[in-house]
């Protein structure tokens, strides 16, 4: 439970909000690289943390991210011409490069100062992991920017990953909380009561794991902090005296990885990016550090699988709020817990059902909400510190973002640290570059 | 005409408004019983007086009416599982009975106080006359609730009635005023000028009555108060020296019966229930105390007839504000007064045309608006009294709601009391249980 | 650039705004005459400067323009019956003439004062040039109203003109600024770079003119004030030592004529009428003072041509904001400057792209924006003066609105006054009645 002011502090990321300032210290995904497939192609409207921007790939392949308002008469540069290393307004031909500086002002007298000073707001961009990232914060005094976080999927050959995104009609924070809350698997993603665990084709894992998860609605949670966030482990009884561990990563400010992966299986992760305070993009990535994804896996992911939703050409989930997620009450009664197809869609349904911004003042949390509580404290502390002038350090630890999480089965009585060391080779889940 | 504050006082029924408090002393229709056809069926979203609620029929057939927000993390219980005598949130399995009390909290430690105290807001419900009623007010000190009003249609065998509802896109009060204003029949529901009275197939009564109504646009009104409201009679010249009386009932806080019924004919009534301040449900019922409705009558009512609108599966009128009521200007010129098909639809058109909330500060009322004036005074006085701590008595007079109204033809010079006594056997139109 | 208060002052035309008061000193187009084709036909909803009104043509062919709210109970007179020289409310039959006075109140006692005093707000109307005009301001002390401005197209036989309108989703002022800004032709309406000037079938003029316009993005502007506004001339290099002049008229408060017409060609003009602060109607007229328009020209204009947009039966452009103007990025790359078909549609796209109300506080104007600056100063001065009690004189100069503008090719070094005299026979572009 949060007070109303703390709920605002956690959730609001507009430019003038404390959390908005905090988020702007980190590189943010703003588009998939494939949304800008070619040099001089059509510019693309994007909205990030309430800011309406325009992305375009120039003649040399560089991506510009600019405020789309021509400073001459306020025309929308979206309608502009992307050509010859710049974006030209079609009203009177003013033209700007990817850095926002004017490169041509055809109706301005040659001796005007405008030619030197005129510019539009532009944010630095990078491409990494098939995603265009932007740095939308202030430039540090020495001019040096942090580097894009080295999320493992981005460091691999493209053949070993699948990267996409989906739109969600709610605030970023409750979507992220859904990712950190691995206890809800005991309900939301299960078969209907009475249906054997091996009958749900949409289930995220095999029959034994499902049975363990189903049997224990109250896993015991342990949390380990690290340089850029924390890892959380949920322990449930497995068969015999064994414990079934499911671990998930949180990395600042809004990255997460999923808990089901056993060694050799594909890893899944997401980055939650506010569109505005009432909607977010969830960039979702699947990777396998050891082998290429198969054609069948790619095909499956394109049709929606696990936390990857089935989306249309605009990355809007096909089963969404506006069509009631195509919830089928007969399916819900006799087959699956929700009557909604797809783990990603079930998550979206329940997260969007909390309201555009979840009202955390009326909650009644329990011990299984441990990771959610830690997440909120971490973010609120970071934003508060920044408001007092203390810059966050995580943005400068880009190598610390090589993180994995997943499942492990181990004997009773062992510590979370032991489990992490045994499963990932490090207590925090950090992966040495060499072992990727 | 009302002042702006009085217009607010009359029309606004949110929980914090004086009229909202007053309405909450009365049982309110919240759904048709057939919207919850089976035990453990899908829950149904309802909105009553601005409150967003969820109705569900549990395993034992009882109807729960609850606030649809899970107190754990705020997920919407609409997506929940209605099973084993309760509604279960699909996020983490919290489950609540029709009384709102938690019956299962699977992720809460056994020794937690939550198991005893956790509950969601729930309102008592009853079923009467194929309608689910709820009491949304405070429970009196002695714990005893009033009983549901014994509207006559509800006391009859189902074969003698037809019960439905229709949505209207305006405040409840102006819709009810339309029902009490029987003078508008001389215009709104008539054939076009020049068209004989027997040519309008949609007309609510036979040719003579139509001719009398048409001929006299200024009926003389008499009003008699009774325990739960009042009855109004409008007197027009009939043939020769006869007077054609049309009477209508108003019962607190928002019930009404219609004026056309002659002995032996079907009775019609409605209850106006605020969805919010800008829309209402009009529960509409047809009954014949003496015989079953015929198959032909039922068929006719299902396709819209008289004050029963033609509606879709969501009880939205087919001819409505969004499609301009399918008004046909050629029909209006040559056939009917409005060019809109259906008495109910004509009423909806004109009432919705007054705006979402009619602006009563700019009106110019006349003598034919007598019942409207009495209605406003009665409601405003009741809400004002309650605000001063004086509880209304009508909710406790549930037997007094057995009321009829209709038409009568009588010699000139007789009093309204005489007419009521002769037509209904009582001055107020109250029907003895025996004579039903 | 304007301050925020001045931007409001310029753009807002509601009844209580200074510019709203100023506009109400002038006759305003409120409908095309053909929207009210017959006596006693259906009334038509219109909205002008934020006021929701109803226009109807009565039995004698007169056009009434009234507030559509029946003063009895507030029903919408739009649903009323237009018959026997008045509009009758279908609720209780109250009837009003084109002057707004009650002519029948059937449910009002014969001795009531209502019969003398009851009225609805009504504005005087005139028809001129196939347009219904209204005077929505206060009646001067002597009761005399100004006359409708004698725009030339309205003085000609109907066979010599084509009159239509189009809706635009932005404030009136930025649309008008687009008309006065003839410098944008060098970009917005051009072929794509590299495409010869003779390949764009939508181009507003012939190849030579296009080439001159394209070659010179920075015409030199001259402005001459006159009794009812000003004329602006833009001078570009033509072939050899010649200058290509393009002139445009501005007439108070919101009329304009276009710059391309050479002697013998058709003239084009428009009047910008606020619907509310966020949308406007652009009444658009084409005329030839010397000959009838040909069937081919009429056909072409009906399908959209030059500043005449291609519109649907409600005068909504087919290529509009809601469908992205059907912008084709391939066309934009290889054929036309914008990828949008139609000069009118290109204008609408760029003007609507400035926002519902252009933010003039962030502009950076140049010398080519001279006419825009003059327009703003003129309007703001007029509204300010009126707010101080100084009535504008232009409304009383209806003969001064016979104005033409267009193109001329002349030797270098001649003054704008000379050009106007040579091209139009007067320095201001005013046309003597005789020479029409």
TrEMBL record, chains A, B, C:
Residues 27-134 form the Rieske domain. PROSITE patterns: RIESKE (PS51296). GO terms for molecular function: 2 iron, 2 sulfur cluster binding; metal ion binding; oxidoreductase activity. Keywords: 2Fe-2S, Iron, Iron-sulfur, Metal-binding, Oxidoreductase. SUPFAM superfamilies: Bet v1-like, ISP domain. The keyword Phosphoprotein does not apply. This is Ring-hydroxylating oxygenase subunit alpha.
